[in-house]
Specification:
Elements (H helix, E strand, L loop, with lengths): L14 H4 L3 E2 L8 E5 L13 E9 L6 E6 L18 E8 L22 E8 L9 E7 L5 E3 L4 E12 L3 E9 L12 E4 L1 E5 L7 E4 L2 E2 L5 E7 L5 E6 L6 E3 L7 E7 L7 E2 L1 E6 L6 E8 L7 E2 L20
C-alpha cells in the first residue's frame, strides 16, 4: 500500500490555506470536476465515467459533517450538452467504514474490482433538475466515526464515488466539506484528495490548473499521465528543486506520459504540476501520476506542506 507518513504532521499548513476546503480549491484553479454519462465518447475528455474523491476529517472532529455538491444536476448552466437535450444521469455515493479507503481498488485509477468498497452511507441520482442547477446540494449528515479511520493519515476518511450511469452529456460540479448543511463552513484541518481526475480547464488563455501530488521518502521517479489535453498549451512541473520543468502534453483523444526523476531534496514535499492553457475554448481532460512502482500518487486540494516554491541556488566562486 502506497502511504504518505509525512501527513502525520497534522496538515501543518498556514492557517488561511488550511481552511480552504472547496474542491477544486482556489490554489488548484480548476474550473470544475467533470463526469460524463457512460454512453459518451472518450473524445469528450472522460476516459471511464467515474470519479472518486476522498475527504479526510480530523480525529478531534466529533460533530456531524456534510459533503456539499455545487451544480449536482446534469442539464443546466455549466454542463455540456451532447445532442438535442440532456439525457444523462449521475450518481453520487458516499462510503465509510472498513475498506472505504484502505481497499486498494478504491485507490485504483480505473474503476475496477471493489472500488465501491466500504459501507454505503448515502446515494443520490441527478439528471436534468432545475432545483439542483447552479446551487449547492447537501449530502449528510455524517458522523465522523462512520468514516474509516486511517492511522497513517491520522484522520477519518470518507469516500465519494461519482458515476455517469446514463446518457452522453458532461456533468460539471464542485465539492465542499462542511460543518453545516446549509452553508460552506470549513472544517479546520480537513482535506480532500484524489488519485485521478477528469476536470475542466479554465476557459481563459494563460490560466493554469495546478495539482499537488505529495512525494514521500521512497519515491525516486514520477510519471505523469494526461488524456485529451487537445494540445491546448503546455505542462510544467515546479518543486523545491525544479523550476518550470517541461512535461509532455496529449493531443485530442490521446494519452501522453512523461517520467521525471525525483531528487532527495524533493522527497517529503509536494510538487506542483500545472497545465497552462493557450486558448479560450472549453476543454475537459484526465490527469494522474504514478511512482516508479506504477503506484498511483494522491494529489491534495490543500497541498501538504504548502505550495512548493523553487529554491534558488547561487554559486559563488572566489578567484585570487
Amino acid at each position: 500500500m502506497y502511504k504518505y507518513l509525512i501527513i502525520l504532521l497534522c496538515f501543518a499548513l498556514p492557517a488561511g490555506i488550511a481552511q480552504a476546503q472547496l474542491v477544486p480549491s482556489k490554489e488548484e484553479n480548476i474550473d470544475y470536476i467533470v463526469t460524463f454519462g457512460n454512453k459518451a465518447s472518450s473524445i469528450f475528455g472522460d476516459d471511464d465515467y467515474v470519479q472518486t474523491y476522498f475527504f479526510s476529517v480530523p480525529i478531534n472532529q466529533t460533530s456531524p459533517v456534510f459533503i456539499r455538491i455545487f451544480d449536482a444536476d446534469c442539464g443546466g448552466k455549466h454542463d455540456q450538452i451532447n445532442g438535442p437535450d440532456y439525457d444523462s444521469k449521475t450518481r453520487f455515493s458516499v462510503y465509510g467504514g472498513n475498506g472505504a479507503y484502505s481497499n486498494k481498488d478504491a485507490r485504483n485509477i480505473n474503476p475496477v474490482g471493489n472500488f465501491k468498497s466500504g459501507h454505503l452511507l448515502e446515494s443520490k441520482v441527478f439528471g436534468k433538475n432545475p432545483l439542483a442547477d447552479n446551487v449547492w446540494t447537501t449530502l449528510g449528515p455524517f458522523n465522523p466515526k462512520e468514516a474509516e479511520f486511517d492511522k497513517d493519515l491520522n484522520a477519518n476518511v470518507f469516500k465519494i464515488v461519482v458515476e455517469g450511469i446514463s446518457g452522453d452529456d458532461g456533468n460539471t460540479y464542485r465539492f465542499f466539506l462542511s460543518n453545516s448543511a446549509t452553508r460552506n463552513q470549513a472544517i479546520e484541518g480537513g482535506n480532500a484528495f484524489a488519485y485521478e481526475i477528469c476536470f475542466r480547464l479554465m476557459n481563459e488563455p494563460n490560466e493554469a490548473a495546478h495539482f499537488y501530488p505529495f512525494i514521500d521518502k521512497n519515491v525516486v521517479a514520477i510519471k505523469q499521465h494526461n488524456f485529451d489535453f487537445d494540445s491546448d498549451g503546455f505542462i510544467r512541473l515546479t518543486s523545491v528543486a525544479k523550476k518550470e520543468h517541461a512535461l509532455e502534453g496529449s493531443a485530442d483523444g490521446q494519452w501522453m506520459e512523461s517520467t521525471t526523476p525525483i531528487t532527495e531534496e524533493e522527497q517529503n514535499t509536494s510538487i506542483d504540476i500545472h497545465f497552462m492553457k493557450k486558448t479560450n475554448r472549453s476543454n475537459d481532460m484526465v490527469f494522474y501520476t504514478t511512482n516508479q512502482y506504477n503506484e498511483s500518487i494522491p494529489f491534495f486540494s490543500v497541498p501538504i506542506g504548502g505550495i512548493p516554491k523553487y529554491r534558488y541556488k547561487v554559486n559563488v566562486e572566489y578567484k585570487f
